[in-house]
Amino acid sequence: MKLKGHNKRRRLWFLAMFFAVLPFVSGCVGGYSFTGASIPADAKTISVANFPNYATTVYPQLSQLLSDGLRNTFQSQTNLVVTPSGGDLDLSGEITTYTVQPTAITSNDQAAMNRLTIGVKVNFTNSKDPNTNFEQTFTRYKEFSAQLNFASVESSLVGEILEEIIDDIFNKAVVNW
Q1: Is 155 helix (H, G, I), strand (E, B) or coil?
Q2: What angle do helix axes 150-174 and 62-77 make, rounded to 10 degrees?
Q3: DSSP per residue, 59-97
Q4: Cα separation of 154 and 158, whole Å?
Q5: Which residue from 28, 12, 33, 9 is spatially nearest to 176, judged by alpha carbons?
Q6: For residue 45, what are the CA distances in angstroms to 42, 82, 120, 145?
Q7: Over the stretch 45-78, which tens digit does the pLDDT of each residue have?
Q8: Is the dihedral of CA 59, 133, 169, 72 positive or negative?
Q9: Among the four 77, 83, 86, 126, which has the fewest Cβ within 10 Å?
């Protein structure tokens, strides 16, 4: 009999705690998502301009891949609606760097490793919280064997680098860790 009374009091205590905490938990809306994004509750849209390619060497699909990748990331990882222009959050910029350079030289003065580097200058404007606005260049690279034909690995390297750059931009724009 004592055990039943103890369990009943315990359940009542848990229910009381649950209802005591509920108002605080339900008050947390708008500024949190499970991706870690911290977006003002009144921000509903994001615009992502096409990023023109001003690098001295041009990979023809790079501008489209970057711009579409940013749009897809914000659309899939936030509740923001992607608009062509005038969003509450706005991303624009340009591709500034696309280079392939040797990074390791053999004893015969031959390249052993090469590095593909991509740099993107980004302007971010948050009309709801101007303190988070920034202008920054994001640069990433991947190294590959100089024995490989660059044309055969270029698209996969570009994809890997863009994935990292897009993550960096997303994190800087809306993830406040």
Answers
A1: helix
A2: 40
A3: -TTHHHHHHHHHHHHHHHHSSPEEESS--SEEEEEEEEE
A4: 6
A5: 33
A6: 9, 6, 23, 43
A7: 999 999 999 999 999 999 999 999 999 999 999 9
A8: negative
A9: 86
